[in-house]
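Regression test case RT-17, inverse folding.

Input:
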């Protein structure tokens, strides 16, 4: 067991940290207030190839370590967790769907390489109004017509949906077979009949656009079918295992970001004639939160390393997602409390972090679903 990061991992961590502090922090509150996606910054970070970091170079990625990518999501999320989820959906859910699929290499490269450098943006179309936690309850259908498929249906809660150049759409080619009749397709923006629906007005992650996506007689070439009929559900599940590590990194970033704001504040803020860090009941609370953060970090890095080393990671990913996001909620809420009245005000960032943290317990499988995954493996 080795707890040291490699040179590459340290470099990516430093790059993401510097980018977050220089490029994201200055306007993060204004963007949150305006629900404005930082497209310029997203493209700028993309020039480093970071969105395809963990994928093989021959398929259009950067051939980096998976943990490096996770460290980058964590660093970005310390400052701007909404950017963190757009990044994670792009790399883990969209890129992961492509990479985990049985598509030929030229299709993988075609749809991964432009994402790697931020020239294009990807999204993941699984959830529907009737299929949330029960991802098998899909209604979107794809019918073969010569050398193409015609897709009809609707997706919802699609992160990056309004921005996405490419969306992986999961659809039933044989509804009677349920999950065994599910396939997956890459649908390009601008394909006739493929439209962005309602853009959600959210509590947190306000700058990451989330929308419905409608498909009305959308014709997609058969070569864009990245999971054959029967393979789609497993592709979605496997991809979500990776996505959950990304959300765990987002949660850990939020927890660390809020903790650091509270720690510095406590050393400066004086009440009853001394800094509030000298109040033992507050210092002890911080000791507990720091221990929680270290626990979450160990679980997250373990899950990332399992994935990187090709070991089973479904359960470690579910555990890391549940732990990191619960700790994110706890630490951000306590940080607001530590800062008192100031914590409730937008100037100090922690109220935004608390709002952003809530969704991490919900998306990419609620934490109740994570318990289903973990307990299912216990009693199989
Ligand atoms: N990897 C590969 N295959 C898997 C798998 C995994 N992790 N999990 C299940 N499977 C396979 C099973 O082996 C099974 O295969 P067989 O039929 O050959 O035996 C098949 O998939 C069906 O498995 P289950 O019977 O366990 O499926 P289920 O219908 O009971 O569902 C579930 C299981 C865990 C509850 C699943 O539905 C689930 O994860 N739900 C949550 C969905 C989710 O996370 N949605 C988030 C969408 S993205 C998002 O949040 C928005 C965003 O943009 C950020």
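Golden output:
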């Amino acid at each position: 067991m080795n707890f040291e990061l490699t040179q590459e991992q340290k470099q990516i961590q430093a790059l993401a940290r510097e980018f977050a502090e220089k490029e994201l922090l200055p306007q993060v509150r204004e963007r949150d207030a305006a629900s404005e996606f930082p497209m310029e910054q997203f493209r700028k970070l993309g020039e480093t190839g970071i969105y395809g970091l963990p994928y093989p170079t021959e398929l259009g990625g950067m051939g980096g370590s998976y943990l490096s990518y996770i460290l980058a999501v964590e660093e970005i999320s310390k400052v701007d967790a909404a950017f963190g989820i757009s990044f994670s959906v792009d790399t883990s859910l969209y890129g992961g769907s492509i990479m985990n699929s049985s598509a030929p290499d030229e299709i993988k490269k075609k749809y991964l390489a432009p994402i790697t450098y931020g020239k294009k943006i990807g999204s993941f179309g699984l959830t529907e109004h009737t299929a949330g936690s029960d991802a098998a309850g899909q209604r979107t259908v794809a019918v073969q017509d010569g050398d193409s498929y015609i897709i009809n249906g609707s997706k919802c809660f699609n992160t990056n949906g309004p921005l996405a150049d490419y969306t992986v759409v999961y659809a039933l080619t044989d509804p009677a077979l349920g999950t065994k009749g599910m396939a997956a397709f890459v649908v390009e923006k601008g394909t006739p009949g493929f439209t962005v629906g309602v853009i959600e007005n959210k509590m947190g992650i306000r700058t990451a656009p989330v929308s419905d996506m409608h498909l009305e007689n959308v014709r997609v070439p058969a070569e864009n079918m990245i999971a054959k009929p029967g393979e789609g559900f497993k592709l979605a599940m496997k991809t979500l295992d990776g996505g959950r590590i990304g959300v765990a990194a987002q949660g850990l970033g939020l927890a660390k970001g809020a903790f650091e704001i509270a720690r510095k504040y406590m050393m400066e803020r004086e009440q009853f004639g001394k800094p509030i860090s000298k109040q033992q009941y507050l210092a002890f609370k911080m000791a507990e939160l720091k221990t929680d953060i270290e626990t979450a970090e160990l679980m997250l890095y373990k899950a990332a390393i399992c994935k990187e080393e090709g070991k089973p990671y479904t359960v470690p990913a579910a555990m890391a997602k549940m732990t990191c996001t619960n700790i994110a909620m706890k630490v951000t809420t306590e940080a607001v409390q530590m800062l008192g009245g100031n914590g409730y005000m937008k100037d100090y960032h922690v109220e935004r972090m608390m709002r952003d943290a809530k969704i991490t317990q919900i998306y990419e499988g609620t934490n109740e679903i994570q318990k289903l995954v973990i307990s299912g493996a216990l009693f199989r």
